[in-house]
Design goal:
The chain is mainly alpha-helical. The chain has 2 helices and no strands.
Length: 78
């Protein structure tokens, strides 16, 4: 928890105050549901960020193979 507070420049007192306000606003039953939804959203975002990178790497590999095959064909024609 200390690492998160260093990254956001928020101290322990501020985190407790925010948590207490959230508990008062949303209640004890709704808060876990909201945090679960937030966690799923973050997980989905991370997955979405990873997939395009993996797809582009695969596409780059396929393009490189196609170019090397074209180069081989052009060399054999000469």
């Amino acid at each position: 928890m200390e690492m998160a507070s260093q990254l956001l420049f928020i101290g322990t007192t501020e985190l407790l105050l925010i948590g207490g306000l959230a508990l008062l606003l949303f209640g004890g039953k709704k808060l876990p549901e909201m945090m679960r939804g937030l966690g799923q959203g973050v997980q989905s975002f991370k997955k979405g960020m990873k997939e395009p990178i993996e797809e582009s790497i695969q596409e780059d590999g396929e393009e490189a193979k196609a170019e090397s095959e074209q180069n081989k064909e052009s060399k054999t024609e000469q």
